[in-house]
Amino acid sequence: MKKILLITILFLAACGGSTEPTAVPQPTEEIAAAPEVTTEPADTAVPQAVPTEASITNTLVPEPPTATAPPTAASDTEAEPTATEDTEETAVPETEPTETAVATTEPTAEPTSETAAEPTSASQPPPAVDPGEVPPVISNEYPDNNDKSGWENRINVPAGFEVTYVGRVEGHPTSLAFGPDGLLYISNQEGSIFTMDSSGNVSTFASGYNTPTGLAFRPGTGQLYVSDRVINESVGGESQISIVGQGQLIGGLPCCYTFLHAANGIAFGPDGMGYVGVGARADHGEILDGSGRQDELHPLEATILRFNPDSGEISVYARGFRNPYDIAWDANGTLWATDNDPDYGPPEEVHRVVPGAEHGYPWYDCDTCFSPPPGVEVLPPTYTFVPHSSPTGITVYKASQFPSNYYNNKFVALWSAFAGAQKVMRLADGPPQNFATGFAAPIDVIVGPDGSMYVTDWATGIVFKISYTG
Predict the structure, then answer these.
(1) pLDDT reading at 122 higher than 90
(2) What is residue 138's predicted lDDT score, i.e. its pLDDT?
(3) How confident is the model at residue 137 (pLDDT cuts 50, 70, 90)?
(4) How many CB atoms neighbour CB 217 within 10 A?
(5) 101, 150, 217, 347 - which has most CB atoms within 10 Å?
């Protein structure tokens, strides 16, 4: 076992700090075709929509039609290390998570190419099981980044589940998406998008982005939508959504209060429209000049936006999310969002997103916070987690490889190095439960075409697969 020195950095996007990373080069859309990549760009140029206050559609849109998929195998799209003590989280009606500090561990070697065994997907889900509570890992000893067996033995999962070290990418992963070609697409903080096959082989797919944090394939196409930064400044920053190989679709989105506050997770809804979470430009609604006065909110900050994937036309779907790092649709057509709360330390949140509603930001309860104006009703979160645990990636299990009682459960990555984080939690009935513990800094989680769950670790660059073996 190799003890990795952890440098705790206080970030405010998925953690709760104020240190800005070094700016990454502006996007150049330099595409390197990966083996077997079958992206299919449209024949015509995509219209570029750069919103201005005069052109933004601020009307709130109705909730998309309900989609109730049967429990059959289907792909679904949806990370700091130090010793941690496990702290019990609580579920409350309509509650959400908060932000936290993370520890950085630089990758130590090249990606591995060893083969990871692929489980056989069952035509019917296994019977329901009660795995019991998964213990946390209390240790500041981390295996070397290329020590497959060391990491597989370190990650704790429920009885009947198995962890496989699939492979590793360079840099700090931020988001995962499975493509129609069956490859796993991985963006990293340094500005690249990689592909990884089932054996862990890695190829560069695209590069030149500035801190990409959202990846999503438009269903039925090979179009990969990416969110990243255009102007990486805490005041006057700008983020965008673009299509790989085709350029910017939407520009002028609010950015970049701190590390991961920008246009973040993207998900396509049952209505065929795109949805994206956009972070706030301050901690709890104050302006950024230090005066303590309340800022006039940008019409698109701290929101979930709905956008037309062809024209880029946008509208506000819901408001009040300080930093919704990731979003995911469940089998009932309900949208869920992780949210990082203010730095003064309230619980972190996951929200059931209610169209047209206010979900919190900037109306918090603290000495320097602001109260909602008359007539504004703020919805509480659906689930809460320990302060500074930094909920980042979220996915909904809609496949059949796991036992049947896992269907339509939510899974959330808690990214930070604070006690009670560094793990993936299962959200079902009752309080959140530990599902997988022992990571360094898990940042995103997704369900693959094989029905297994995939987790990527920001600190190490490793991609893990969690499968049910019974």
Answers:
(1) no
(2) 56
(3) low
(4) 22
(5) 101
The stretch 423-447 carries a mean pLDDT of: 96
What φ, ψ does residue 151 adopt, rounded to 5°?
-70, -40
The sign of the dihedral angle between the CA atoms of 333, 338, 342, 345 is positive
- Examine the pLDDT at 87 and tell me if it is beyond 50: no
Which residue do the tokens 């990606």 mark?
Answer: 111
Q: Which of 65-69, 78-82, 198-202 has the highest mean pLDDT?
A: 198-202
Query: For tokens 């995509």, what's the residue?
Result: 46
Whether residue 79 has pLDDT greater than 60: no
How far is 314 from 405, CA to CA, in rounded Å? 37
Residue 290: predicted pLDDT = 80
List, in order of start, the domains of the chain with CATH numbers: 1-470 (2.120.10.30)
What per-residue string of b and e applies to 445-464 under the rule 16 or more CB within 10 Å gives b? bbbbbbbbbbbbbbbbbbbb
Distance CA 25, CA 28 (A): 8
Asked whether the beta carbons of 46 and 310 are under 8 A apart, the reply is: yes
**Which pLDDT belongs to residue 291?**
86
Region for 29 from its dihedrals, namely left if φ exceeds 0, alpha if ψ lies in -120 to 50, beta otherwise: left
| Edge-to-edge order in the sheet of strand 184-188 | 30-31, 202-207, 193-196, 184-188, 173-178
Q: pTM (2 decimals)?
A: 0.78
At 313 the pLDDT is: 98
